[in-house]
Amino acid sequence: MAQRRFFKATRHHSGVGDYLFDIFNYTFLVILCVVMLYPFLNQLAVSFNEASDSLRGGIYLWPRAFTWANYEHVFGEASIVNSFFISVLRTIIGTLTSVLGTAMVAYTISRKDFVLKKFVTIAFVLTMYFNGGLIPNYLLVKELNLLDSFWVYIVPGIIGVFNLIVIRSFIEGIPDSLFESAKIDGAGDFTIFIKIVLPLSLPVLATVSLFVAVYQWNSWFDVFLYNSSSANLSTLQYELMKILQNSNASMSGKTAADAFANANASANMVSPTSIRATMTIVASLPIIMVYPFLQKYFVKGLTLGGVKG
User: Membrane-crossing residues (predicted)?
Assistant: First the structure.
């Protein structure tokens, strides 16, 4: 009761300050939301607007001349369906293998009884600061016979060093008494990892999974390097990049007036601006749909270590 009276008195004493702070805080958050959401909503409006009308400018949050032509042009490419399937498959398999492999190594180097703990940790961390470069990486992939192969998307990313450090730090926060009790009951390291570490590490694993999934979904440069000659292994991002390049090439050498006149001649004509906006929506939508299901784990994972028990 005494604490309640003190809290009420303190709040009453600083009521004006709290009120002003709330106004400033809410105003700032609203402005921040608008600043963050406007570019995406603007691209969404442009993607649903006719290319000829978009060239005039003035498209903000709502399409002025609604059309499906931009999406029809993008999905009208024969390779889009197969590349979409490859991207989904790559994201799922790449995320599962990377998170599982990284978590296993993180559990190993988090154990105090692991003799080479310090050496292995330093060896992994050094790879974050020193890289062989593009040509050595290409030669390594070639020697491993991963060129023109789906597994070139998976194998090089099985262990992520930054994610390794994050997961290891979380596992080190798990009480040792849990591991000791499990070992007394006869459990081995693999059983402890599956039945204790993974369930307790769900927040950090969900956070890392989102990072890896976004990387796998958005990656296209490795397709260009290793699988550019294999059309059946092309990803959605790489195909969208080629569509944008073709659109830019078709518009090169034309003035804005020529482009506007040609666009007016055909309502279904697209422009680099409309294609770019459509690509942004197509590439972002799957991640936006997945994020709400991981949000609670993601927020919790980002705040790990903020308060020590």
Answer: 20-41, 84-107, 119-138, 150-171, 192-217, 275-294
